[in-house]
Amino acid sequence: MPELLLELLSEEIPARMQARAAEDLCSLLGKALAEAGLPASDMRGFHGPRRIGLIAAVPAATEAAEEERRGPRVDAPEAALQGFLRSTGLPREALVQRESGKALHWFALIRREGRPAAEVIAAAVPPVLRAFPWPKSMRWGGTSSFVWVRPLQRILCVLDGETVRFDLRHGEDDGHGIASGNLTEGHRLLAPGAFAVASAAGHEAGLRARYVIRDAAERMRAIREGIAALAAAEGLEPVPDEGLLAELAGLVEWPVPLLGRIDAAFMDLPPEVMRTTMRVNQRYVSLRHKDGTPAPRFALVANMVARDGGAAIIAGNERVLRARLSDARFFWDQDRKERLESRLPRLDQVVFHAKLGTQGERVRRLEALARLLAPMVGAEPSLAARAARLAKADLASGMVGEFPELQGVMGRYYALHDGEERRVAEAIAAHYRPLGPGDEVPREPVSVAVALADKLDQLAGFFAAGERPTGSGDPYALRRAALGVIRILRENGLRLPLRHLVAEAFLLYPAARAAASVPEFGMAVATEVVNAGWRPRPGAVHPPMVEAFAQGVVLFLLERLRIQLRAEGARHDILSAAIGAGEDDDLLRVLARADALAALVSGPEGANLLAAYTRAASILRAEERRDGPHDGAVEPELLEAAEERALAVALDAAEPAVAAALAAERFAEAMAALAALRAPLDAFFDRVTVNAPEADLRRNRLRLLSRLRRAMHMVADFGRIEG
Q1: How far apart are CA 118 and CA 101, in angstroms?
Q2: Would you say 587 and 489 are in contact if contact means Cβ atoms under 8 Å apart?
Q3: What's the CA dihedral at 612, 618, 622, 624 to 10 degrees?
Q4: Distance between CA 527 and CA 510 in Å, rounded?
Q5: Does pLDDT of 202 surpass 60?
Q6: CB 94 within 8 A of CB 108
Q7: Which helix (H) or strand (E) segment is 446 a member of?
Q8: Nearest residue to 141 via CA among 155, 157, 152
Q9: What is the distance between the alpha carbons of residues 415 and 405, in angstroms, rounded to a whole number?
Q10: CA–CA separation, 301 vs 657, rounded Å?
Q11: What's phi and psi for 68, nearest 5 deg?
């Protein structure tokens, strides 16, 4: 098939926008071509500092097509017929009359000839470009309304060696006079000027000859390998940072890695401070010795082949870095003149959230919650409370004000400088973790207590304030907080009463303490849970609506756990079934139950038991729609058939065995007790007619099936298991 090459050359595109823009271009143009009858295949995008584009295979032309369209009735008003003729573009003589339903209608046969691919592409590209979804766009000189991320300079569009002609005019708007052609440009400084292109291969080769590597992955690989080679020559290695390498690949067209030197006077700064200063301000790659200690060297990536080997570029960057590190030195020295604890009063002036108070109020909540959590995770309460008290103090420091990425990290350094207990200092640094899937979870008990307190307070507060995540956004990172709680519990093997802890976190907010039940604060979540049929446990220590609110947050955690397991390749329906067995808020116990359930249904006994359960549940649903629940006690004297008596006896044995096994958390034994029902249940369905003509027999047999369903629901909601 003919090859399509499209390139949009502009001023420098922000690195963070390039990859998404190339994806959007492929998606939007691919959709537009498909809708026009020209489906593209093997479409792949490319992106760089000055260009985005795509390469694809397309048919030479659209296929000819015929469409029969029914029009108005023959006796319809003339206006209706004229409207139909306008919509089809046909004269009256081209229409035919035919019966349709009970009336005579006009019919039109519309024939569409195939269109050359170039014609379709020329019509499809301008609307896509005019509506392109850049996160931010700009206008530039002239009166055109056309916008782009940066001023658009050229459009290269070639189909099988021939230029596809179009422009960006739209009515009286001249579209900046931009029209498509077969020209592109190489490196702005190393190879200025335009050159002609006839194919994707020629485009790539021509750019490379003019100091532009078209493929972003290749540029990133060249940067990674080039820096690693330079570092290895000095016995060093780069600090891994794939995100920075990807950004650098979006900043240069012809990467030239270079090494610079850091003045020895700055080497006593914390490594995180130096790395953050270099990364955030200058996009430098930090280097380290083989033992992990910081090296007095840094790597930079130039976009230029310099005649002096880069000496002037290195010197200029070293000069800039000295100024940046001098600023960092100032913050480091100034911050250590004041104890971390002395910064706490300033947090009372820092708003955490308009509905949730200040950071100072949050610190007091974390302190109380960490003290509550400490004995549950094996931590000393006084240390956990102390760490929570100081966890946010570095937010009022100069260094964190300049580099918010260092919150927690700087708190640890300042706490150690103040002579705080090491476990307290480490907890300050660790309480934000895990920050993502690849981040380690806290392990030391004091750190675990503070990290959990931070995340549970966040979840309880934002849920109560009505700021829950939606399908389109999660501005307060509540999904990340939930996954953090899940990972901390799973990876540390911790069993916690989550509903109780969420309720306690909720009640630490003044708005929650204002009434015995939940006022407007948190009411939406609590009401949803109650309306779904949930009822508080007997003997619950919190007011009913507080318990309901806490259950809503726990359900959010369980849903995130289900999604996490699905991402790990586990059967999420099994977890849903295990969750549906009750209102268990111990995640590890739920997982253990799910593992035992998965083992049961994976074998023939469990598969047959599931099939029998499905049949029983289906019968009960149908009959309960007719005459209501059949939850009454089974009457032994009405058990006529041997098979129904055998099933009743099997249930007599299984129910206490299941209950005892569940109470002892011997889930495999509970599953085995259920599996024993398989044979009598099969026999029951083979030889017993549930809907017997005798009303009392029918009612009793339905009660027997209802008893079976209740017994199985003690273990899991088998109705949620797929297949």
Answers
A1: 43
A2: yes
A3: 80
A4: 20
A5: yes
A6: yes
A7: helix 445-464
A8: 152
A9: 18
A10: 69
A11: -100, 125
Neighbour count for residue 706 (Cβ, 10 Å): 21
Residue 224 structure tokens: 């990674």
DSSP reduced 3-state for 352:
strand
CA 598 to chain centre: 27
Chain segment 30-74, per-residue pLDDT in tens: 999 999 999 999 999 999 999 999 999 999 999 887 788 899 998
pLDDT-derived band of residue 681, with 50, 70 and 90 as boundaries? confident
E strand segments, 113-235: 152-159, 162-163, 180-181, 183-185, 194-196
At 706 the three-state DSSP class reads: helix
Question: What's the Cα-to-Cα distance from 538 to each of 57, 516, 543, rounded to whole Å?
Answer: 67, 18, 12
The CA-based angle 53-56-58, given to 5 degrees, is: 135
Could you write out the DSSP letters of every residue in 586-629? -HHHHHHHHHHHHHHHTSHHHHHHHHHHHHHHHHHHHHHHHH--
Q: Which amino acid, residue 128?
A: V
Res. 566 pLDDT band, cuts 50 70 90:
confident
CA distance 632 to 368: 48
Contact assessment for residue 708 and residue 677, using Cβ atoms and an 8 Å cutoff: yes
Helix (H) or strand (E) holding 294: strand 294-302
What mean pLDDT do residues 672-700 have? 87
Residue 351, token pair as written in the block: 């708003």
Going by pLDDT thresholds of 50, 70 and 90, the confidence category of residue 162 is very high
Give the whole-angstrom CA distance, residue 257 versus residue 224: 9
Place of tokens 């032309």: 61
* Interaxial angle between packed helices 359-377 and 445-464, expressed in degrees from 0 to 180 and rounded to the nearest 10: 130
Nearest to 363 by CA among 431, 300, 271, 425: 431
Question: Tokens 């990536």 map to which residue?
Answer: 301
d(CA 570, CA 566): 5
Measured torsion, CA atoms of residues 483, 488, 492, 496, in degrees rounded to the nearest 10: -90
